[in-house]
Design brief:
Oligomer: single chain
Number of strands: 20
Largest sheet: 10 strands, mixed
CATH architecture of the largest domain: 3-Layer(aba) Sandwich
CATH topology of the largest domain: Rossmann fold
Structural class: alpha/beta
Helix content: 40-55%
CATH superfamily of the largest domain: Glycogen Phosphorylase B
Length: 561
């Protein structure tokens, strides 16, 4: 199949996501959901699959993070779309709050990272048009900004505006893929169209279900977008009544996850355990499991790319070939890691103003700073951490943003800086500000161990450990999300605690025990054993947990359903 965007008649899968990490400098994402969406588009380009992405322009981005006195400060993240994308010739009207709001867009072309494959287009929806009133022009300005009304209006633009813009451009769509519930309102536009052609509600709903695929990412009910119906009637208008929305999206409130479930013929979670959790949350729905993956070329360090090109031909298009990475001479694999670690040390020195020791064991922890991720777990017993480091020296690399309204997440960042000052030179701790895809790539490839400590069962999947594994970096992680599938104790990494409800005290004790008695002695005292773990991370996890495998599963299972 060809993904050439010069043929508008080619039937495509339209992949809708509120955020999408496309390129450094484009503020179209905030975290893991957007990075995953970008990896989907990059794999589609590598595999020459007929897809088109749809997301919001987010001209003023998320925010740039600055640290002052250990506290997060949010700075403007405005970017210029004309430097990255091409303005589209079409624009479409959408009714929002009783007004006609025009939605235009820009086209960004996703290129293959490892071959001259056809490009995959991504439409960046934009309401900053002269036809619109000032407050409507700002609807695509801030990613996850504003209040509930702003969020709902953004989701009208994404869902309804996105479907209409695809049609205006003449793009033929055979499947609509909703990446999380933010895009669920696209089903209303499809249902409206079907009812106009066929007044049978049952048949119209069946037709919409046949076209829609829904991926849910959130394992807790509070994380799903919900809106009061008075607000929905104000923002969406007559469609709420005309389509009898409460029968599809919940009687009490407009629940976008329920709407997506009701009008999608295929639903999946993002890991085996997450699918189980989702089936329990949404009884009566079949929830399949397609475990997430990461884009191989994007997340491999420069040194690992060269190494794989030399010893594992075709790994870029067929990452399952990394099963054979154990044929790479051990010295060359260790040299690639040293090169990646040297690049990371440079980043840490720029961020912390101190020179770190490339021979010292480096632990990496970088993710959205929110309470359930438990960023404080590693520091919960400072005295024991010091004792461990006296025998086997360690240094720690940290990064992550807290949502501007997440005061608890911001306190976590401040506390991490307090611990860094308290530990001083004994255990160097560096926090890298403004965590983005560039710094993430250096972190996941350059540390010696990737740490992940979420509360079970709140990690739907997690992908940072997959990125680390691709570079031969093992994980020390809670048994949740993808790690339940990827952890082979002592071969791909190590588990913290047991598979059950989280317990901060027990998990912290397990974390310290594994570091002190297993991980650090192996690193410092058994280099041959440590090399086997590096090889296992690549051959077992890197070869499987990649977005090529994920997208192929979508094509074969979800899109052909």
């Amino acid at each position: 199949m060809s993904a050439s965007d010069t043929d508008p008649m080619l039937p495509r899968v339209a992949y809708f996501s509120m955020e999408m990490a496309l390129e450094p400098g484009m503020g179209t994402y905030s975290g893991g959901l957007g990075v995953l969406a970008g990896d989907v588009m990059r794999s589609a380009a590598d595999l020459a699959l007929p897809m088109v992405g749809v997301t919001l322009l987010s001209r003023q981005g998320y925010f740039r993070q600055r640290i002052e006195g250990g506290r997060q400060v949010e700075d403007d993240a405005t970017w210029d779309p004309s430097r990255h994308a091409t303005r589209l010739p079409a624009k479409v009207p959408v009714s929002i709050r009783g007004r006609e709001v025009w939605v235009g867009g820009w086209q960004y072309r996703v290129r293959s990272g490892c071959a001259s494959s056809p490009e995959v287009p991504v439409l960046l929806l934009d309401t900053d048009l002269p036809e619109n009133q000032p407050e409507d022009r700002r609807l695509t300005a801030f990613l996850y900004g504003g209040d509930e009304a702003y969020r709902l209006c953004q989701e009208i633009v994404l869902g309804i505006g996105g479907v209409r813009l695809l049609a205006a451009l003449g793009l033929q769509v055979r499947k609509y893929h909703l990446n999380e519930g933010h895009a669920a309102l696209l089903t209303l536009e499809l249902l409206r169209e079907r009812l106009a052609a066929n007044p049978s509600r049952e048949q119209a709903i069946a037709a919409v279900q046949a076209q829609c695929v829904f991926t849910t990412h959130t394992p807790v009910p509070a994380g799903h977008d919900q809106f009061d119906y008075p607000l929905a009637r104000t923002c969406i208008g007559p469609l709420v009544r005309e389509l009898d929305l409460p029968t599809l999206a919940g009687q009490e409130r407009l629940n976008l996850t329920h709407l997506a479930l009701a009008l999608s013929g295929w639903v999946n979670g993002v890991a085996q355990r997450h699918a189980e959790v989702s089936r329990a949350m949404f009884p009566g729905y079949t929830v399949h499991a397609i475990t997430n993956g990461v884009h191989p070329w994007t997340w491999a360090s420069d040194a690992h790319r060269r190494l794989f090109d030399q010893h594992v031909p075709h790994w870029c298009h067929e990452p399952e070939e990394l099963l054979h990475a154990d044929r790479i001479p051990g010295g060359e694999l260790l040299a690639a890691h040293r090169a990646a670690k040297h690049a990371l040390i440079g980043l840490l020195q720029r961020a912390g103003g101190q020179a770190l020791d490339p021979q010292r064991f480096t632990i990496g922890f970088a993710r959205r700073m929110t309470d359930y991720k438990r960023p404080s777990l590693l520091f919960s017993d400072i005295a024991r951490l010091r004792r461990i480091a006296q025998r086997h020296p360690i240094q720690i690399a940290l990064a992550g943003k807290a949502h501007p309204r997440d005061e608890l997440g911001k306190r976590h960042i401040a506390r991490l800086h307090e611990w860094a000052r308290e530990l001083g030179d004994g255990i160097p701790v560096v926090f890298v500000p403004d965590y983005d895809v560039d710094s993430a790539r250096l972190l996941v490839s350059g540390v010696d161990l990737w740490l992940n400590t979420p509360q079970r069962p709140l990690e739907a999947s997690g992908t940072s450990g997959m990125k680390a594994a691709l570079n031969g970096v093992p994980s020390l992680s809670i048994l949740d999300g993808w790690w339940l599938e990827g952890c082979e104790e002592g071969l791909t990494g190590w588990a913290i605690g047991a598979d059950g409800p989280h317990d901060d005290a027990l998990d912290a004790a397990s974390l310290y025990d594994k570091l002190e008695r297993v991980v650090l002695p192996l690193y410092y005292e058994d280099p041959t054993g440590w090399l086997k773990v590096l090889q296992g991370a690549i051959t077992k996890n890197g070869a499987f947990f990649n977005s090529h495998r994920m997208v192929r599963r979508y094509m074969l299972d979800a899109y052909s359903h």
